[in-house]
Amino acid sequence: MNGSGRRTRWGIRRKLVAAITLLGLIPAVGLVWLTPERVNRQAIRALRSKSRTIAEVIAYGVRPALILGDRAGMGEALAAALANADLAFVIVTDATGTQRARVVAPDFMSDSILALAPSPRINGIITDRWLGAAAPIMYQSRRIGTVYLGLSLDDARSEVSLQLRVAVVAAAVLLLGAVFSAMLVGTLITRPIGKLADTAGRIAAGDLNERADVTSNDEVAQLVRAFNVMVDSLQAARDELTEGNATLEERVARRTTQVSDALYQLKIAKEQAEAANQLKSEFLATMSHEIRTPMNGILGTLTLALDTTLDEGQRHLLGLAKSSADLLLVIINDILDFSKIEAGKMEISPAPFRIRGTCEAVFAVLASRAGDKKLAFTLDLQDSIPEWLVGDSGRIRQVLLNLAGNAIKFTERGSVVLAVSESARAGDIIRVHVEVRDSGIGIDEETQHRLFQKFVQADASTTRRYGGTGLGLVISRKLIELMGGKLSLRSSPGNGSTFSFDLELPSTAAPESTDEELIGVGLGPATIGGTAVNGARRLLVVDDNPVNLTVAAAMLHSLGHIVDLARDGSEAVAKARQRRYDAIFMDLQMPVMDGFTATTAIRGRDCLNASTPIIALTANAMESDRARSLAHGMNDHLTKPIAPGALRAAIERWTVAGPRE
Hints:
Layout: H1 2-68, H2 71-81, E1 87-94, E2 99-104, E3 130-139, E4 142-152, H3 154-204, H4 219-244, H5 248-306, H6 312-343, E5 351-354, H7 355-372, E6 376-381, E7 388-391, H8 393-409, E8 415-426, E9 429-438, H9 445-450, H10 472-482, E10 488-491, E11 497-506, E12 527-528, E13 531-532, E14 538-542, H11 546-558, E15 562-566, H12 569-576, E16 583-586, H13 595-602, E17 614-618, H14 623-631, E18 636-639, H15 644-654
Parallel strand pairs: 6-8, 14-15, 14-16, 16-17, 17-18
Antiparallel strand pairs: 1-2, 1-4, 3-4, 5-7, 8-9, 9-11, 10-11, 12-13
């Protein structure tokens, strides 16, 4: 037994000695191999730098003599250079390569490489004895000659030889030290490890009461203590396993039941969340339709009334009513947009648009409001921005209206500036920087941190002067984020505010046709093929709501058009089969037959109006509603409430002049 243990210990010891010796041998060999090479590279690098410097100095020194053709002067300058002990030779040539002067150290007179001189090959060459370099001789930015020289490598070679001898001695000392240390460490480590191995063998045989003795206070002792702790844990685990086997099946069954219950509850919660989200989306669509339908009647009726003959008092009262209705529509739009954001239904629809037209439309809408407050309202649009960009012009216009409208609202005196500039460009991608600056009341730092939260205003007291829902900035921030930007604010109380954002928008060529800005303010009549499209058209309006039907008919009559009416989809199909129309305005949600079904029927081959433009005129304001209208064969999608300008623009966009009989 003891003999076997001794053989085992000696085996480990020999392996340990061999391993440590090998580890010592590797750096020893590396030291002998790499040290001379490293010293040689350093010496060569230093000589290269030195040779370039000396060559440039000599070139500067011989330049006057070379210019004057003074061979004696050049010889004196080169002889002085040979005072440098490392210099092997110096050769001067003129611009044609002809040798003009030359000095060679005595020890290098027989060097065969000098037969190459003068030659560009000398620059950077390394022989057994010298390193070559060259430098141009310049005069008035023109090369008039070249200096070639060589530096002796004798000192470098001597240093390399010395370092090799030092490395050999150091490697021998390192290797001997490694062998001695390995033998000593092997003896100290293997003895207690052997005892630990004997104890482990007895424990492996099943005697868990056996423990190893701790005879020192080093790392091996820590190993022995950890081994004993492991045996204690092993014994405790065996006891616990024996006890736990009796109740294992019961615990597994109980845990399986708990997991199944949790999964079932999770499934129920997921289904409830999906149902709630669906109900929320359906409620949003229903509210959008139900609110916009009466608002269309209110705003349409007020608009028509204001176009009639009124005295000053009547016009003032109706104007107040329309302003209130417009404000109510803004609040409704904010609430619906916020609902879209909460439901994850807010969408961005990029398309070619004119950034200048969008900004000018915003400016035109708000100019009168700024004028009423005697504010200087300025549009600053940088000329370098391309005319046509690709983006969601409607959403950009909505953000600009909100930011500039707020600036005018919260500014009592001074100015408001809407500035649009190009901040960067990468190929066709333009980074457009937008700022809305005002000289208004400003916002303190504490309020700025919560200003972009929903329903938050700078003045939240019940006596606040300005009103509003507190949703505009939340919606604007979300729209900017959906378009890839970030809305920022700089402000301080009494010093005004600056809201800004950047959008990266692709530039594009002008499209062949676009409806992007025909509903803007102050636009002239549209053209088709260069011909004006003024004149009366015969139109069919389909709507189940009598008020909306009356309002739409009155607006179209006021624009000079001939209008037929239908109260549901089936009546519209019947009239479309009897008479040709220039355009059909179609509501979507109607009894008997809805607008989608009616459109499909009108597009049939047997209908006179199979190719007639059909324009959705609806309170369904979601982007998905517009996509659905176009997918069912409609040409356009207008959202209630409708203004006469929007109707006029749609007619001019989709029809030609002259009514159909």
